[in-house]
Design brief:
With 117 residues, the protein is an alpha+beta fold. The protein has a five-stranded antiparallel beta sheet with strand order 4-3-1-2-5. The longest helix is centred in the middle third of the chain and has 19 residues, at 35-53. It has one domain. Helix content is 38%, strand content 21%.
Length: 117
Amino acid sequence: MQDGSAQKTWSVVVMDLFHSMDPDEETLVGGFPSWESARDYARARTWSSVHELREPGMSADKLKSQWWLFGETVMVVGDPHYSATDEIDFFVANQPTATQIDWVEIARRMGAQVCSK
């Protein structure tokens, strides 16, 4: 957020679950023009993380366990709160399309920037 004369922007925090106790492993991505665009990025990046761990024949419980150990989760900073972790069961149960998990394109299209690592 910025002062009243500038347009409000939104940020997300990307958390590496393997290093969940190390705040130095969190990345702030900012500059999203709306809460919805920040949420879309958070969903796409987290769903992509789940998808990358998926193996043929893997059970939902195993995939979810692997994600909690080695995945990434993303949350929108501020109010209203959004954490992609709240949708983990959906991400595990559903195969995404390439467009649904293209978080790099979402960030590029929205002009978002990595602010800190």
